[in-house]
Design goal:
Low-confidence stretches: none
Radius of gyration: 15 Å
Strand content: 35-45%
Shape: globular
Number of strands: 7
Distance between the termini: 39 Å
Order of helices and strands: EEEHEEEE
Number of helices: 1
Helix content: 10-25%
Structural class: mainly beta
Oligomer: single chain
């Protein structure tokens, strides 16, 4: 059976050149960047899934988790981290390294 997953990506740092991120999310991203060895977190977005069962620990429970993408983009490379934030804890799901050309 084929399953299609749809999601929305929402920038949490900038929109039209102005910072829009919730200060809690921005501080969390900075702390996570320090733990991952990223010099500066200049990319932060939240993923919202159309399927409400994504990120549920128990069947039927409300999803209180936030799926975040954070990273650092430089002139010659980029690093992105996909993580799930649960309160003050985090689970790192994947890391992508994008070398410059």
């Amino acid at each position: 059976m084929k399953t299609t997953l749809q999601f929305l990506i929402e920038s949490l740092l900038f929109r039209s050149g102005d910072p829009i991120g919730n200060i809690e999310q921005v501080l969390f991203a900075r702390k996570m960047a320090d733990c991952e060895g990223i010099p500066n977190c200049n990319r932060l977005a939240r993923l919202t899934f159309n399927d409400l069962t994504v990120n549920q620990a128990l069947a039927g429970a409300a999803s209180l988790n936030k799926t975040l993408v954070l990273g650092f983009e430089a002139w010659n490379d980029s690093v992105l981290h996909l993580c799930i934030r649960i309160g003050k804890s985090v689970v790192s799901i994947a890391t992508g390294y994008l070398p410059g050309l």
